[in-house]
Design goal:
By secondary structure, the protein is α/β, with parallel strands linked by helices. The protein is built from ten helices and five strands. It folds into two domains: 123 residues, Rossmann fold; 60 residues, Winged helix-like DNA-binding domain superfamily/Winged helix DNA-binding domain (Arc Repressor Mutant, subunit A, Orthogonal Bundle). A five-stranded parallel beta sheet has the order 2-1-3-4-5, with helices on both faces. Helix 4 links the parallel strand 4 and strand 5. The radius of gyration is 17 Å and the shape is globular. One of its GO terms (biological process) is phosphorelay signal transduction system.
Amino acid sequence: MIDILLADDQALVRTGFRMILDNADDMQVVGEAGDGAQAAEMAVQLQPDIVLMDVRMPEVDGVEATRRICTGTSRIRVLILTTFDLDEYVYAALHAGASGFLLKDTLAPDLLSAIRVVARGDAVVAPSVTRRLLERYVGIGVAQAIPAASLDVLTEREREVLSLIARGLSNTEIAECLFLSEGTVKTHVSRVLAKLGLRDRVQAVVFAYESGLVRAGAT
């Protein structure tokens, strides 16, 4: 069972998400928070698997709440919810440790799928939206939370895999692109993350842009 904490300052929004999640056999909502400070406190108390975090909240916003949660533990995963697909708060939240983000108008099946992906320890990277965010905000002084590793530690194949991750491809798509088995791709991905000291695919995407491996506007 995936335990989920809802964090949104609008009670109606929380109710809507709860209705969706309550219909999933493998999920349960263990708490609701109305602001970022409460979300961080409840995360410590309840130890949910996932926090669905609204990025824009009064007082303590979703970015600071994410930072507090991810600094305190690596087990709890934060999935950011936003109304706007080009939102500077989202990029800051990724740096703070969020495992991805979704638009609030995401369809219910996609929301449930994203939660399951994040609960397995992977990250939700919406290719087009994430790419636009990175193109806009990489290199403009957002506080760095990504380890200062070097591309030199990667093999040529690992660089290829990293560049394809940055373009939003799944392991299956990378396997097809490079004519490899999916198992081999998973091994390459694990090695890339380990060598660069990255937590997940979201950090890998950010690293690929900030290191210059992938250029803004690249397809």
